[in-house]
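Budget justification aside, the reviewers requested a transparent look at the raw inputs and outputs of the sequence design task funded under Objective 1. We therefore reproduce one unedited record. The lines immediately below are the structure tokens for a 285-residue chain.
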């Protein structure tokens, strides 16, 4: 049961039956706007959900104790919208289509570049053809020449192997990153309808990818991708192999945002995105 604003409820799996079909109908392809993503990062961003008086659903949260709200399923009437800006100050994950409407209504919009999703043609990542991917092909060639490898679909029987990869990844970091969300994603992959692949090097679990479709079923979002071990070319190999086994119905692959990390930004740009899923923040003037 989702209460009426200003009351909220915490996110729970029972709400998937209500929220998942609504998220699936969204055309913009914003990676945050899937039930799995909202649910798995509910603690990181203190997400909670409410129903507005006009029936639209509101998701609120906090980043560094700063409140924000999101309206993935549409904008309410102006009086109610003004009330939300008064209560929360900032609207996050504003789609390009919403940004245009909000600007016309007199709100101030700013590009949230650190949270732009990187969008790639699935065919580009699967084939890596042309001069622009020459270095990637060489790294993959080095990997397949030097190691015995195997890939398997990330079925329940292989989840312990993916968890082993995740735990090893965590041990090699000073900060936890998205470890908690990634662990729960593996543990609840079936309930959340996430799918992926797990990869082995010399018989040992070494990497996995996990995600789901979005953008009306035309794109596939990689929510989590982890790898361990000093295997030259492993990351490039996993990227290509997973793209190559995705069905042709996915024209694009969404590899999510770089969060302002320069190293991550460089790595994502090196794969030549065909576009970005742009997101904006909105505030009252």
């Amino acid at each position: 049961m989702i209460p009426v604003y200003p009351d909220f409820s915490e996110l729970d799996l029972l709400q998937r039956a209500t929220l998942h079909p609504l998220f699936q109908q969204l055309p913009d392809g914003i990676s945050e706007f899937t039930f799995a993503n909202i649910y798995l990062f509910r603690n990181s961003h203190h997400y909670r959900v409410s129903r507005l008086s006009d029936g639209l659903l509101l998701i609120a949260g906090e980043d560094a104790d700063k409140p924000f709200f999101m309206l993935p399923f549409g904008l309410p009437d102006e009086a109610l919208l003004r009330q939300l800006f008064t209560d929360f100050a900032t609207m996050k994950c504003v789609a390009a289509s919403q940004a245009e409407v909000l600007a016309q209504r007199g709100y101030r919009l700013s590009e949230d570049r650190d949270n732009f999703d990187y969008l790639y043609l699935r065919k580009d990542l699967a084939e890596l053809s042309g001069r622009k991917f020459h270095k990637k092909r060489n790294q993959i060639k080095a990997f397949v020449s030097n190691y015995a490898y195997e890939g398997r679909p990330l079925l329940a029987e292989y989840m312990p192997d993916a968890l082993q990869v995740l735990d090893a990844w965590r041990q090699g970091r000073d900060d936890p990153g998205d470890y908690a969300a990634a662990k729960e994603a593996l543990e609840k992959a079936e309930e959340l309808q996430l799918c992926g692949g797990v990869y082995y090097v010399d018989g040992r679990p070494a990497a996995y990818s996990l995600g789901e479709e979005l953008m009306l079923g035309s794109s596939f979002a990689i929510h989590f991708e982890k790898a361990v071990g000093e295997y030259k070319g492993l990351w490039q190999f996993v990227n290509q192999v997973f793209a190559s086994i995705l069905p042709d119905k996915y024209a694009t692959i969404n590899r999510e945002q770089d969060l302002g990390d320069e190293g991550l930004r460089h790595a994502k740009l090196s794969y030549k995105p065909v576009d970005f899923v742009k997101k904006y923040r909105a505030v009252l003037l």
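Residues 164 and 205 are 7 Å apart (CA to CA). The domain at 118-256 is CATH 3.40.630.30 (Aminopeptidase). Computational costs for records of this kind are itemized in the attached budget.
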